[in-house]
Each structure stands twice: as C-alpha cells, then as structure tokens.
Amino acid sequence: MSALSKILRQPAPGRLYFWCPGCKDAHQIQHGEGPGPRWGWNGDAERPTFTPSVLVRSGHYVPGHEAGGCWCAYYAEHPEEERDFECGVCHSFVTDGQIQFLGDCTHALAGQTVPLAEFPEGWGC
Q1: What SS3 class is residue 27?
Q2: Is 6 left (phi over 0), alpha (psi -120 to 50) or beta?
Q3: Residue pLDDT tens, the chain, 125 long
Q4: CA 103, CA 69: separation in Å to the nearest integer?
Q5: Per residue, what are the HEC states of 78-119?
Q6: Distance, CA of 7 to chain centre
Q7: CB neighbours of 104 closer than 8 A, spacing ≥ 6?
Q8: Under the phi-then-psi rule, with left for phi > 0, alpha for psi from -120 to 50, and beta for the rest, what region is 108?
C-alpha cells in the first residue's frame, strides 16, 4: 500500500482509501476504468474530490442483511465484550479535501463538514 498523502492511501491501482473521522475507520473507493462501482476523482492527493457521494453501510443497515446477525445483536448477547465494530451508515460528499457528512449518517458527525483527517500512525502498515 502506498501513501499518496497524509489523507490518501492507494492499496492497489484504481483504489483509494481515506480516513473517516466519523466512523474512525478507512473508506475505500474505486476510480478509473474497470468493473464494479466507480467514482470520479480529481487526481489531487492533498485536496481530493470524489463524485458521486460515498455511502458505506455495515451490519443491519446493509440491504438484505439477515436479521439478528449483526454487531448490535452480538454485543447485546455479550455486553462484557469491548465494542470494536458497529452497525451504521456513513454517507458523505468529499469535495476539495473536505468531507460533508449527510443527515442519514448514524455517527456523531452527521450534518457536519470537516477536513479529511490524516491516517492514524501505523495504519495500513
């Protein structure tokens, strides 16, 4: 994996990671030619713009997810476990190095616009 900047990583050609401060995790997009969903990227590693919006769903928020087989259900059954994963929605526009979180996000940054964050020390090594 190569670091294109403090805020973008390239795990493979045509793929980019950016750090999401709302989810406290990386989100991936695919750009350029190829199969599967593709985003436009302005080519700027310091002030990236991706089009269209980026929508990430996990756990029971994934369409067609089997009821009861998610992180919410697991932690309800194992309250002593440290919560490393969460079910959620993260929907954003990334424009000129800013991430605008839309109102359907389930994390604390819903409705806010913040600069893209740097990756945590040692992430992706």
Answers
A1: strand
A2: alpha
A3: 899 999 999 999 999 999 999 999 999 999 999 898 999 999 999 999 999 999 999 888 888 877 667 777 888 888 888 877 788 999 999 999 999 999 999 999 999 999 999 999 877 65
A4: 26
A5: CCCCCCCCCCEEEEEEEECCEEEECCCCCCCCCCCEEECECC
A6: 12
A7: 89, 91, 110
A8: alpha
Q: Two tokens at 96? A: 């000129």
Q: Could you tell me the two tokens for 100?
A: 């605008």
Whole-number pLDDT of residue 81: 84
CA distances from 80 to 68, 74, 103 (A): 19, 11, 31
- Between the two ends of the chain, the Cα-to-Cα distance in Å is 8
Distance CA 95, CA 90 (A): 16
Taking the model in full, what pTM does it have? 0.86
| Residue 46 backbone dihedrals phi, psi, to 5 degrees | -95, -35
